[in-house]
Predict the 3D structure of the following.
Amino acid sequence: MIAMGLPTSPANCLEGEPALQGLAPSYHEGILEHLRFMFAVGIECSYPLIEGNYRVDQMRDTGHYELWKTDLKLVRELGLRYLRYGPPLYSVFRGPGDYDWEFMDRVMEEMRRLGIIPIIDLLHFGLPDWLGDFQNPRWPEYFAEYARAFAQRYPWVRYYTPVNEIYVTAQFSAAFGWWNERLMSDVAFVTNIKHCVKASILAMRQILEVRADAIFIFSESTEYVHPGSPAMVEQAHFLNQRRFLSLDLLFGHDVTATMYQYLLAGGMTPEEYAWFGQQRDLRSHCIMGTDYYITNEHVMRPDGQAIGAGEIYGYYVITRQYFDRYRMPVMHTETNRTSKYATEWLWKEWMNLLRLRDDGVPIIGFTWFGLVDMKDWDTALTKPRGMVNTVGLYTLQRTPRPVAHEYRRLVEEYSHLPIASNKLAILAH
């Protein structure tokens, strides 16, 4: 295994993580990486374009560009090794073959110094201005170029999320009309999805040429629509098929006849569909990341409007639906709640996760998203009012919330939790 930058001296080990005396560093890293559960946190890094061609940038709005050293230090103080982190693509990727690595070089070097293992979000809800939006058919090839350049510059990175939450990207940009192309049609939705999935596949191919043991953790929103009346059963059923489209194409899973007709009506050709099915070999490098929030379940009202349902099924039931479909290793890649409910929600999600493990689902990690509070997610980033969303482990002043102490305690108490390598050949490379 290529060295991951994990500290090997006893003085630099995480609390509760004993040094393995007499073992070579690379073997030490391998033992810990293969057998330890992946407790993680995320730094919110969304950067879509919204109405008025305004670039949202959560790293800017939460002060990360100024406080990044503090933020990375807080990750270690939580007792964590894994960090979901998204470099600002729109500012790093300036044009074909043109990259600005200045900020990222400093951040990545500090991660290595601290022993943080990043899960890199290469694209998090927005494209650089010069690429336009997700309807542009050329952007996947350029994105693959960027993925290769990133892997070459930071060859010690093993974990990637090529395109974060593809389904949400398509929904918000091409169905709801909120972000980026701001369209509202089935054709735009299908185009967005197929381009995002194609970009992910091309990026994986390029990264694997640089690092053959790369692992791709696909963070995706796990959705479910409940019918609010008998008249809405058919529509809810349709949407509960459509929620799988991004992962179906990504993992080469056959869609239903209804979804196939939907894809064709949305502009996908039979040849394009067949191409996605030919990429199934990449599954051996993939972990299915499942995101779940209190907002992920919906009720379809008789008037055709969807409203929030709260937690009806919960993480266990819905994640089980996704696992039963794809039969792949799982990571809980995102969750949070506002500070009033955060501690209760943390333990509820954790109990759901443990139940999945007890039932034989190979779930290998958990993530609180994010490290610090966010801004304007109460309007899905569509109205940049500076409204603070109190969902972080820390405030924007970097003061710990009670949930930070609880998460650290959870990590300490469950630090022994193993990953069953015999079930997860993906981690045994």
